[in-house]
């Protein structure tokens, strides 16, 4: 390695670096095997209609059941899976699993699946989506595809065309984490989208100062004009729920309603919902 000692000289291998490189390699190897060994699972979090308190569907959130580390959250492994090109096969598994799970839910309930940039760039994406729906026997209108706005910055024309085709096939397109990237309200007009998910950071801002609430109501107002559904992420308190409902947002998602839970827990969750109409209301 490039290792030079002495004042002002660089050391290519810093202490601890070897360990980091090794830990990263180990993580990549574990990840590759995890897909083969079936260590991934999907947890589901309800999307709640704010006016009615009813569940309209669930977002599928990926988890890794690591044999030593227990349940690992996506922020810890998705960036690595993306960097090593594993996200395309992993995303294919996720789409298939989510559609299969959703097919067992009561009729109108939808499932929302997150897509990475590499999946949108994959020429086989449309085929993958169609195959997942067909294998599960799930009508396309029960599938939502969540993409982030950063993803819309590149290849604008190609991306618009792809989103149009996916939409024409019947699936809905959601713009996830809206407001976090280089977002521009003009995206809402430029891109063919059905739903905007307003990032949790605006809910936190709303608690802190009145301008936070003004941003949410401005986004909600524009979306209403454009016929776009709004979902507010990270609703944790009844006060937050009341406020965003009052600003005209359509849907909410957050710990107030339910944390993400395993697929097996969904029937009980829906039953409880029918009784209470709306927990935490
Ligand atoms: P996201 O799509 O914005 O998902 C919402 C995240 O917020 C989830 O984190 C969820 O557990 C968390 N959350 C929900 N309600 C609350 C709340 O009331 N308070 C707080 N503080 N957090 C809440 P999670 O499951 O750790 O996922 C993190 C991110 O990982 C997701 O953000 C998504 O971008 C990505 N991700 C998850 N599953 C997949 C997947 O299958 N494929 C891809 N490409 N990305 C995924
Ligand atoms: Mg999402
Ligand atoms: Mg989100
Ligand atoms: Mg997010």
TrEMBL record:
Domain of life where this protein originates: Bacteria
Name used for this protein in its record: GGDEF domain-containing protein
Residue intervals of the EAL domain: 24-274
Full-sequence portion shown in this chain: 625 to 905 of 905
UniProt organism field: Teichococcus rhizosphaerae
